[in-house]
Amino acid sequence: MPCKEIDKMFSDVEMLINAARKVLGEFSLVGESCAGSVGAAIKSSSGKIYTGICIDVQCGIGFCAEHAAISEMLKSRETVIDFVVAVGKSGIISPCGRCRELMMQIDKKNAETKVILDTNRVVFLKELLPEHHF
Predict the structure, then answer these.
(1) In sequence order, what E strands does 27-113 have?
(2) Which fold has domain 3-128?
(3) Do the beta carbons of residue 87 and residue 24 sit within 8 Å?
């Protein structure tokens, strides 16, 4: 990959990590439920940034931050994800299996989504789902 493309990719990585951190911030809901303990940011193929936060409720019907960001993206009638990152208090978090599967199910092109696993580590979604079949 040419240096210019590498510089652009790391610029995207930093921008998305910062966007996810911006929405991060846990707050209480009813009982021991909470929201915002994880923030996510997606850069779609059009270059638009979408963010979301998780909702953790006691009965298990909450959702991940990536799901919230994907929902925002779908409202704009976009389905292809260029980059995705999720962050929590301790740093960057790998998308869970449910989130990985959702990204694959909304568009087959998302096999090429760049998943940010660390500030210096980016992998394609297909690497995290090596045996995936449509």
Answers:
(1) 27-28, 34-44, 49-56, 81-88, 91-93
(2) Cytidine Deaminase; domain 2 (3.40.140)
(3) yes
Which residue's entry shows tokens 């940010």? Answer: 116
- pTM value is 0.89
Spans of all domains in the chain:
3-128
Tens place of pLDDT per residue across the chain (134 aa): 555 565 666 688 999 999 999 999 988 888 888 888 999 999 999 999 999 999 988 888 889 999 999 999 999 999 999 999 999 999 999 999 999 999 999 999 999 999 999 998 999 999 999 888 76
The secondary element (H helix, E strand) that includes residue 114 is: strand 114-118
Residue among 74, 72, 52, 62 nearest 98 (CA): 62
